[in-house]
């Protein structure tokens, strides 16, 4: 069973190039993958290398690379290799609602002032009737901090400003051209997930806590870069020592 999705504010951006694409929404996955202690994620440059490592399943890794030791003195560890399977959204349905008294401001400048001060200046500017505004009920800076939402007390103010499209806004000692757009709120009404396998990334488990974090990471990378071990060029490697936990983030390339 899938856990409940956490509530999260999202801002959708994009350009419509074709009329038939007007009702389509393109999403870029950002998947968080829990990584337990005593494991590692290794991403190879080539898919066939990752597939070969997974097919071999168990790997014996030398722990004494760089040391001139007799064969009997060499230490080894056994690690298991497995594919990384993720659940990706295949169908996403969002119910959108237009807020008649709110506007979305885009293109806010990056200034060295507190967020509260920036919102106060925006409220002051858009509360003036000479600027086409009205009494502001509340304001909010969105996560990416280049956009803000203003909600007015009375109807008609937001629509009047949206019709302008954009306008120069006085913030501090400078004037900045801000884009004014309708403010839409939405809820996820339907979600379908499908399994997807990372083509270049392999999960290594069973790594004992016998080396420091950096030496162990170097040892794993040296081993799996060697063609004699079935490996190849390593693009990235993340190792979590025993007793620790971490979260790996997979982006659109999906490793």
Kindly describe this structure:
It is found in: Cytoplasm; Nucleus; Secreted. Residues 40-137, 148-235 form the NID domain. One of its GO terms (cellular component) is cytoplasm. It holds the Pfam family NID. The protein has two domains: 30-90 and 191-251; 93-188, 2-Layer Sandwich (Alpha-Beta Plaits). The protein is α+β, with helices and mostly antiparallel strands and 255 residues long. Strands 2, 3, 4, 5, 6, 7, 8 and 9 form an eight-stranded antiparallel beta sheet that branches. A two-stranded antiparallel sheet has the order 1-10. The protein is built from four helices and ten strands. Helices cover 17% and strands 44% of the residues.
Helix-strand category = alpha+beta
The fraction of residues in strands falls at: 35-45%
Low-pLDDT stretches? 1-6
Number of domains: 2
Helix content: 10-25%
Q: What is the number of E strands?
A: 10
Q: Shape from CA axes?
A: elongated
Features:
single chain, about 260 residues, alpha+beta, Alpha-Beta Plaits, 2 domains, eight-stranded antiparallel β-sheet, 4 helices, 10 strands, about 15% helix, elongated, disordered N terminus, Interferon-induced 35 kDa protein
Short description:
Keywords: Cytoplasm, Immunity, Innate immunity, Nucleus, Secreted. The chain has 255 residues and is an alpha+beta fold.
């Amino acid at each position: 069973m899938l856990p409940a999705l956490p509530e999260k504010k999202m801002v959708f951006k994009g350009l419509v190039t074709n009329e038939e694409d007007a009702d389509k929404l393109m999403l870029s996955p950002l998947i968080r993958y829990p990584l337990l202690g005593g494991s590692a994620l290794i991403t190879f440059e080539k898919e066939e290398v990752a597939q070969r490592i997974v097919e071999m399943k168990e790997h014996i890794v030398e722990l004494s690379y760089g040391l001139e030791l007799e064969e009997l003195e060499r230490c080894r560890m056994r690690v298991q290799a497995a594919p990384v399977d993720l659940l990706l959204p295949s169908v996403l349905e969002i119910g959108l609602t237009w807020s008649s008294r709110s506007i979305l401001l885009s293109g806010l400048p990056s200034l060295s002032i507190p967020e509260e001060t920036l919102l106060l200046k925006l409220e002051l500017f858009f509360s003036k009737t000479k600027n086409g505004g009205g009494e502001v009920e509340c304001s909010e800076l969105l996560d990416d901090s280049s956009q803000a939402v203003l909600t007015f007390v009375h109807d008609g103010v937001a629509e009047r400003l949206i019709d302008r499209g954009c306008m120069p806004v006085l913030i501090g000692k400078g004037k900045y051209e801000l884009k004014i757009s309708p403010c839409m709120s939405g809820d996820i009404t339907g979600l379908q997930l499908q399994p997807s396998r990372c083509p270049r990334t392999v999960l290594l488990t069973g790594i004992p806590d016998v080396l420091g974090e950096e030496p162990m990471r170097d040892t794993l990378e040296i081993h799996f870069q060697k063609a004699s071990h079935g490996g190849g060029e390593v693009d990235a490697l993340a190792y979590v020592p025993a007793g620790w936990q971490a979260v790996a983030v997979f982006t659109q390339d999906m490793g």
